[in-house]
Description:
2 domains; four-stranded mixed β-sheet; Aspartate Aminotransferase, domain 2; 431 residues; eight-stranded mixed β-sheet; globular; binds pyridoxal-5'-phosphate; alpha/beta; Aspartate Aminotransferase, domain 1; 16% strand; 13 helices
Amino acid sequence: MLKTEKSRQLFERAQQVMPGGVNSPVRAFKSVGGNPRLIERGQGAYVWDVDGNRYLDFCCSWGPLILGHADPDVVEAVRTQVGRGMTFGTTTELEYRLADFISSKVDAIESIRFVSSGTEAVMSAIRLARGFTRRDLILKFEGCYHGHCDHLLVSAGSGLATFGQPSSAGIPEASTNHTAVLPLNDEDALEQFFAEHGDRLAAAIIEGIPANNGLLIQRHDYMRLLRSLTERHGALLILDEVITGFRLGMTGAAGYYGITPDLITYGKIIGGGMPVGAFGGRTEIMNLLSPLGPVYQAGTLSGNPVAMAAGLATLEKLADGDIHRQLERKNRQFVGRIMARLNGSAVNIAGVASIYWIVFQKELPRSSAAIDPDGISHYNRVHGSILDTGIYLPPSGYEVCFISAAHDDDALEAAAEKLGEAISREAHAWT
Ligand SMILES: *Cc1c(COP(=O)(O)O)cnc(C)c1O
């Protein structure tokens, strides 16, 4: 067992002045038990906690750090900008450069607006879609997370479309009345929904590759059907690429599935570790935003120059595709190595680009309903012993893992050994 006294003491004090000791719930380690590690510093593929323990980090701040911690070029870009001033509340050249960069890479993006989080990007994209279509109804999918704005925190019922049950206290039913929820990976449910409600739908929103409730990789046919149904019914398709944007290569999930959404939302990687979100799409739609059009949207720190500098430095390093290609190879080898060690056990690992997800069941699920909750509890049980080997996995079985450019082959090979051993021990103890 690692020494964790300092983390324990600090976390105790944190709990007295911050609810649950955290500023975002999953950080509290509730699902996996044990004490959260308070991280003091990160470099490359590693983080160090306040007790001095080093971990190979597969959480990577939940996705932004595709280059790893404290990448020298990103740090340099941030330092330079901090020295010139941290915010002006005017348009800056950095904003223009990041906007221009993204729109030059992604077909669907003609025009883009920056905000400060993924939640804010999604919330604004939905308002814009409603303003553009002059319709209210929104369709989302069970198991997709789009941040914590009121009208998307809805629980799913069973089977066909359900409407409007808030999944959090504090949300009036009026806020979710216009949100329908469908299961993923179900063409019949889609067809039926659009036949009944398609003509009053403002937008369907779906994660590029659902990666907030396990990694639920959707079939190309399914995504293409969603694209054609939204188009046919005059509804917009919002692809939420907060995780997948610039992680699935330079064209994200839109490129992966070969679809052109009407709007795309971004966050995480485009901020290079700083708080950034963005939403963009066709000029015709984007020009409805204030000051040009009637859809109001604003932000004091939107397009913050320090954040723009971090994002730009990150995306420029990714631009030639080399890092993405290497990440994909590393992830494939890494997942293959663990799987080889697990032969026969009821464990699987979903992988795409530089994302992987360990799941204690044989079949990889494509919908929430297909995830076995017992499998999740296996993950939660084994998390602590993996942490003790110096590997930091996200503290919930529903969360996915990320590999960064700083994860080198030797570190990954050693980690595959340790993970393979811990996972097969857990799998055999319970099957
Ligand atoms: C992380 C995430 C969000 C929310 O972004 P925040 O910056 O946490 O508000 C929205 N959508 C997806 C797909 C995400 O992964």
